[in-house]
Every structure is written in C-alpha cells, then in structure tokens.
Amino acid sequence: MPTPKDWISAMRLRTLPLAASTVLAGSASAFNYGKFSWITFTLILLTTLFLQILSNLANDLGDAIKGTDDENRLGPVRSIQSGAISKSEMKRMTILFSVISFLLGIAAIYSAFETINWQTILFIIIGIAAIAAAMKYTLGKNPYGYSGLGDVFVFLFFGLVGVVGTDYLLSGVFHWSAILPAYTVGVFSAAVLNLNNLRDHKNDKLHGKNTIVVKLGIEKAKQFHFFLIISGMVSLALFLYLSPLLIWYALLVFLIPTALGKHLNIVRHTKDERLLDPELKTVALITFGTFLVFFIFQLISTYEVF
C-alpha cells in the first residue's frame, strides 16, 4: 500500500509554483481595476493547484500504461515506474482529484458571480475542458502529448485561459491588457515543458511520444525555446511599461533578463540532456518569483481590497 510520502512524490509538488503563477498574474491584473476578493482568489488558486496535481497523476498513469517510463528515462523516477503505486491505485486517485478540482471550480465560479447566467455556464464549460486537458495529455487512445500538441495546450490553459480567466472572475470584466501577462506565463510554462521534452527526447522518440522536440530535432527545438523565453520577456516588459506602477517594476526588467540569459546560455551549449533537468526548476521559479513580486506590488498599491 502506498505511503503518504509516495503520494506526495507522485503529486510532484515542485510543479505547483508554476501553476500558481497563472493565478498570481491574473489576480495582479485585476488589481489594476480596483477589484479583488480573497475568497474567490483562494478558490481559484486551490482549483488551479488541484488541476496541476491531477495532470501530474494522470501523466504518471498515462506514460506507465504506454510503457514510456522505463529505465532509460532521464527525469525523476515516476511512482508507477518505481512500483510504489499501482496503476489501479493511481487511477482511483486521478478520479478523486478530477472530482475535487471540479467542485473547487464550481465554488470559485459561484463566489465570483453568485448567480447562474451565461458567464457561469461558460466558465463551467471551460473548467470541464481544463480537467479533460489535464487528463488527456498522456491518457486515452489519442493523447495530445504524444502528437506534439502539449506545448499548445500548456500555453492555452496556463496562459490565456488561466490568467485572463482569473482576471475576469475577480474583476467581472474582460481586459485586453491581461493578454500580455497571460502570454508571458503561457510561453514560460511551455518553455518548462520544452525543457522536459529536450531532456527526454531520446526515450520519447523510442516510445512514439512525438513531442515538438522529437518532430523538430534538438537544434530547432532549442531555437523554439529561445523564442518562447525572449518573446515572453518582451510581452512582460510591455505590460510593465503600461502599468501605473512602472517605477516599481523597473528592477524586474533588469533582473529577469539577467537570470534567464544565464539559463539560455546553458540550454544553448549543453550536450548532456541530464544537465537540463535543473533548468526546469530555474524557469518555473523565475516565473513564480516574477509574478509573486508583481502580485505583492499590486496588493500594496491596490485601490480596494475586501
């Protein structure tokens, strides 16, 4: 029987800061319009974190079923792969987290709108789509993670849907400006996945997991990685320039390129895929740290917190 430590390992908690960045970015955007609710914020954050854990569990299960996780995998040993958790046990936990994620999402939507209208129905549909996306990355007959669409879905749900959706739930209004931080979170999240796929490209190709890295090859996949990081920095810089708290953000504009510049240099020159594994954490923590600072600055200067 799996121990609590086994389940915590399977949930891959180190991925949660990146997921939280989505909510922090959307919430900070909503602050610009004097709108915020701690209850709604907390429910959105919990929903997002549970969706991320759901994705991690489903990914473990899906890759185990397809035989992708074997002794040739360079990343951390997965729970089913190690024998700590059986496939049936992981399946039950995946179902449990999908139910919890759905209920938390319903609570967040009700907290935001407090009524049933076209908006609540739209967000319920989006929530169901998010649960399906979390599970279909590697699960099922035609998982999109095996056909090179993982980066697209990560960009959509971590970026556009997550950030803009959070902003809308908190403020009640769609803001075009929210697309800028949404783009940054989306491409940085896709960059983390791209690093994962760069690390595992040999084993993925062997098992028919046709990620973008497998399709493009290492050199073009690295160029794609550069595009993701650099375009994300440009989008963030533009958003900060348009922000009423420009002077507070000037430091971020200098610090982020320095940190990510070092990261890009490692990605460009490394020949050993194992050396890419720490870089997943680097990009994830830079993303989280950036939007946590962004959120705190906005919180300090917000017009109304209730």
Topology:
Layout: H1 4-11, H2 16-31, H3 38-66, H4 79-82, H5 87-113, H6 118-136, H7 150-171, H8 179-199, H9 201-206, H10 212-216, H11 218-242, H12 246-269, H13 277-301
Helix pairs in contact: 2-3, 2-7, 2-8, 2-13, 3-5, 3-6, 3-7, 5-6, 6-7, 7-8, 8-11, 8-13, 11-12, 12-13
What does this structure look like?
- This protein has helices at 4-11, 16-31, 38-66, 79-82, 87-113, 118-136, 150-171, 179-199, 201-206, 212-216, 218-242, 246-269, 277-301.
- 47% of the residues are buried.
- It is mainly alpha-helical and 306 residues long.
- Helix 7 packs antiparallel against helix 8 (179-199).
- It is globular.
- The protein has one domain (4-301).
- It is built from 13 helices and no strands.
- The model has no long low-confidence stretch (mean pLDDT 86).
Shape: globular
Gap from first CA to last CA: 45 Å
Our count of helices gives 13
Order of helices and strands: HHHHHHHHHHHHH
Describe the sheet with the most strands. none
Query: In terms of structural class, how would the helical and strand content be classed?
Result: mainly alpha
Number of discrete domains: 1
Throw out a few tags for this protein.
mainly alpha; 306 residues
Quick gist of this model?
The chain is mainly alpha-helical and 306 residues long. 75% of the residues lie in helices and 0% in strands.
